[in-house]
Amino acid sequence: MLDGRRVLLIISGGIAAYKSLELIRRLKDKGCAVRCILTRGGANFVTPLAVAALSGDKVYQETFSLTDEAEMGHIRLSREADLVVVAPATANLLAKMAAGIADDLASTALLATDKPVLVAPAMNTMMWDHAATRANMAVLEGRGISRIGPNSGDLACGEVGGGRMAEPAEILAAIEAHLGGGAGPLAGRRAIVTSGPTHEPIDPVRYIANRSSGKQGHAIASALAALGAEVTLVSGPVTLPDPAGLTTVRVESAADMLRAVEAALPADIAVCAAAVADWTVANRSGEKRKKSPGAPPPVIELTPNPDILATLSKPGPRRPRLVVGFAAETEKLMEHARDKLARKGCDWIVANDVSAGSGTFGGDSNAVHVIDASAAESWPRLGKDEVAARLAARIAAALEGTP
User: Fold this and answer.
1) Is 272 a catalytic site residue?
2) Which domains does the chain have, with CATH numbers?
3) pTM of the model as a whole
4) What are phi and psi for residue 29, nearest 5 degrees?
């Protein structure tokens, strides 16, 4: 998909600059040519030698380098790429872009380019949430500049919140969405992915939920889109940003999720990665339930939620060609997953251990077993983006040659 394409990668000064090295490697593995501009701040976190070794090209740093301007001036540098990517994009560089300031090679190249630009912001959560940064980002998006992330999570400064740079796999998927041009083994296929938890209201204030973060489902949606699929992501309440290059529908309850999934049909692929609540509250209150001194706690009556996976798996003209479910288990993992495969009628089950201490719910890695009617395939613990990439590739291989 990226073979022969050209990316200009601008690496600015933030601790997340180390991720840019992995991004370069992934782009090169895809056959993409990568030229890099390294700012003075960026050079405090990654070395020019490391960037040059991975990109296989010279690293550009100074605006007024006589050699660089003679051999590859900032105008050529900014216009010979198919896409300009800024990762990490600091608050300072975003502000320069919004104001049209050109006081170093990176900002000059960005002002001189006539190519699409993708930024991956990375900064402290207070800086990301500051009104100035948000206003600058709104200006840039209004000019057509695309953004991937930032994500929420642990930050290098020790705080937790928004501002964490998107992972290299997420940025790669966004780049492929920009440059893929409809290519890829899943081009022409439609996919539905569910992700995250559902919230089942008890009253206007309280709800029943679970610990799902949505990281795995969102990664799967991005991985399918990167292979060319037209993806609709139906997401329960999560703190993750909407992935680039696909359609995201945000919902609250299981009933909402089912309606959104059915509205997205027909599809060739359905991946039900969401942790859907098994029950909803039958006697939900329209007002906040109040406690009274000496009174017993209210009785909450539960009723089964609609079964989204079983609904999608029913034979019929609207059934996706491939339906993949997830089994989040705390015991007898393989036994319960095989039983779920038989009961639901889906084609594959992806089983994962979510017991205490596994680190699966809310974590960045996962160890899964992919089970079908005839076999089980166990994968080692991988990053959730790697799990997603493997699963997307397996789906593409299963559908290869089918109408």
Assistant:
1) no
2) 6-179 (3.40.50.1950), 190-282+292-399 (3.40.50.10300)
3) 0.62
4) -60, -25
